[in-house]
Amino acid sequence: MQFKHLLTLCFFALTCLFVQPLMAQNKTVTGKVSDAKDGSALPGVSVVVKGSQVGTNTDANGQFKLSVPANGATLVFSFVGYTPQEVAATGGAPVNVSLQSTSTALSEVVVVSVGYGSQRKKDVTGAVESISSKDFNQGAVINPLTQIQGKVAGVNITQQGGNPNSEDAGISIRGQTSISGNQNPLFVIDGVATTGNSQFQNLSPEDIESYDVLKDASATSIYGSRGANGVILVTTKKGRQGRAQIDYAGFVGISNQSKYYDLLNATEYANAIKDIPGVDQSKYLKGGDVDWQRAITRTALTHNNNIAVSGGANGFSYRGSVNYSLQEGTIKNNGRKQLGFRFNADQKALNDKLVLSLNLSNTTVYRDQLTDRAVTERYIFNTPPTQPIYNADGTYNNSFKDFDLANPLYHLLETYNKGTTYQTLGNFSANYNLLPSLKIGATGIYIHDNTLTHYFQPTFTNEGNLNTARQQSYNKTSYQSNAHIDYNESFGKHNISATAVYEFNDFQDESFEAQGYNYLVPENLDNVLQGGDASRNKITSSKTEYKIISYLARLNYNYDNRFYLTASVRRDGSDKFGRNSQYGTFPAVNVAYRFKKDLLNNVSWVDDIKLRLGYGKVGNSSALDPYQNITLYGAGQKYFDGGSSFQYPSTYTFIQNPNSDLQWEERVGRNIGLDFSLFNNRLSGDINYYNDKTNKMLYRYLVPTPPFFVDNIYANVGSLTNKGLEIALTGQVVKGTNFSWTMNGQITFNKTKITSLSGSYNGFNLSSDQIISSSASGRGLSSVFLTYLKPGYPIDVFYLQHFEGVNDKGESQLSSDFRYIDPNPKFNYGIGNTFNYNNWSLSFFFRGVYGQKVYNNPQLIFTTLSRLPDNNVTKDALTSGNTDVRSSDRFLENASYLRLDNASLGYTFKNIKGISNLRLYLAGNNIFVITKYKGLDPEVAPVSHYVDGNVGTIPSYPKTRAFVLGANVSFK
């Protein structure tokens, strides 16, 4: 045995003698690889010693470390989409390399944000789509949503109407995912997960560099419950090392209402009422000739200005910007001003191992809000054109006493309604490389959103109303933090990255409102709320808070840049839910295979092709407000005190049943996708098919009393499905030295269906055959239920009688049976073209919807002849021949449309001393729309349940058409 140990020792000694000289002949080389165009780090670049199998890949920060022969070696850097480069490894200095892009499709957007990290586009395994600034929509863009509207397959953005203060655009990714929760995706701005759409919509569009849209559940699972409806990652522009640069971007333009209803002029109105029995014409014919639609509208001015300064040196980079915009509304006394500041900076320290990052933004929005919706929804369509705006002495004509009649301009201009929003977003992060392959980091985030509104409506002469004053304050505050560990390593052809994250989120909301009536000094507006009738004062307030705590682990594996695996698991906990089910576990997995090298190596017209498969589960808590899982008490029912008002009793009672078993809504998603680049990148694109299902839907269901305190309870019952196909293509039709033509487009097919609304809770049946989701009515008509949520049918299916014509008495003839009709579009699409000729550029973008149906409730209201002379001054009232109008499929109209959404013509000046870039352009938005729909505009946000305008009313703010002249200038 001792002889065996002696032989072992001798062998070890001999090995050391041979190995030590060999090791002495090697040296370690480090460095970084970046994009030659923008300086961004390139992860996954192959670094190989020429003529050998020795090599490695760059990590997520573009850095590498490799042992090479000490007597000199040549390193070969190669990366799909870039020209290979050879560099001699000499001396002890780091080897820093910049690669030139060859613009192959799968890596044209080199780095894609995927949440808590980034990947090369060709390495992405989930359904992620990117859009950079060069592809943004042009024109009068103040709301950044306009930049990507219609550009991304599967993303439906509907901005209904032209109100500059509207922030309730319909945004959905891959259909509706809940029957009671919101459908809005999560917007993440430079790593800051926002708490509301307005924080993104108030961001200056000129500060945005790119968007990355995470669409399928396997991709969005990285953000857990907050990403249940999809995630839109927004990357803003950053400063770079080098000389300071000043950028200016701005435009000025005008906008007008794009379409008007046909109203009667004074002569037509007088002729229409002269033969109506019992009508005293002198009461109505006052010498005026006014189109009240046009009386309250104007040609509106819009301008936007953004100035940014950026630069950096010695490991420090920065960018600061100031934005000011003015957007007048096409309706008078309505508009929006915004002043925003944004600053971001990065500082490297400790031999570039430590990176400190700071992002700050502060935005103030001043609103002149639409003062009186009755003006646009009732008065302008009822008030006779023969009534003048002003009396002979210059005062407002207000000789109206009917509820539906008033001087629209008087109401509009004399009502005071202003709001101011203050938004602050800030985050600070520190990331430290413990080892070349191991990094730790932490981030702190603060978001504060305050809105204060002021309202005063005067006493209108002859209308008998009391003046009213009101102030409202809303505060939303969020504290967020996370800590993370990242590991990146390569072993030959094997590449591994792993991430572990801890998150803490605290959300606080509070509101306050004070209101009063009958003020003796109206000049004080809302500034002396105690100065009215004290017996009519009203004060309300509220405050809520909830927390979400999450744990996340993710692993990415890549073999030879061909085989990919991404797996993650996230555990979310929220105190919105019952004590028995506050936490939910949500896994996801993706695999991908790039088979150009293996199967299509000899097919010259295929540049690259990748197949993706994904599965993921995410939770959703948006259907619940805080405290809906516990017993709540409140004041009992009001009772009439025998005097002039209703009073609350002094006792309290149960107002909500508890449910300690409330659970997360669960969305399970499956996705199969194909990314490809063909014909030397002349044609590229991606195709995705998805099949998603939402289980355990949250809704307020009816229950018996007793044993329950009240007759409803929040419970997890029911399910729905989303199935769809997305196709996005980009083609370089002409690719020349002086002239190029690029065409791109996307089309999305989506089908959402309710599969169940039934279940049980504690032995009690919770079910519903159908749930009412909207109703509509005409003036003087009772409300009629229109759309429902019904198992086996799409979301918001209509249930209507069939219209069979009008009899000789002017009465509507309807069938005896009701029919279910799907109003949802068959598909959505967008088509863009960009032409470049020397210094000129021309682009235009069409956006459309096919198969959509919209219930034209205004047409129902306008069609009734008997409304003259007091309640309808539209020409439809004269031509319909109806004396009896009832709700039916007569007013469910084909609302398919094709819209020329925007077009721009620009010229870029070159070789101007002191100016590195100068571009002037002319652009238009909503230039025309082709549709059979009879209303003002067929674009209806999903939240309105496909009823034109607010339920039972006329659209409160028509869509606008805008033209602008703009400039982009850079000084360096």
> Helical residue percent?
under 10%
Strand residue content: over 45%
Number of structurally distinct domains: 2
Low-confidence segments, given as residue ranges, are: 1-24, 777-781, 943-953
Task: Give a quick account of the main beta sheet: strands, pairing sense, barrel closure.
Answer: 22 strands, antiparallel, barrel
N→C terminal distance: 79 Å
Shape: globular
Continuous helix count: 12
Assembly type: single chain
Number of strands: 52
Could you state the CATH homologous superfamily of the largest domain? TonB-dependent receptor, beta-barrel domain
**In CATH terms, what is the fold-level topology of the largest domain?**
Maltoporin, Chain A
CATH second-level architecture of the largest domain = Beta Barrel
Give a concise summary.
By secondary structure, this protein is mainly beta. The chain is 9% helix and 51% strand. The chain folds into 2 domains: 2-102, Immunoglobulin-like; 242-394 and 403-459 and 469-535 and 542-763 and 770-971, TonB-dependent receptor, beta-barrel domain (Maltoporin, Chain A, Beta Barrel).
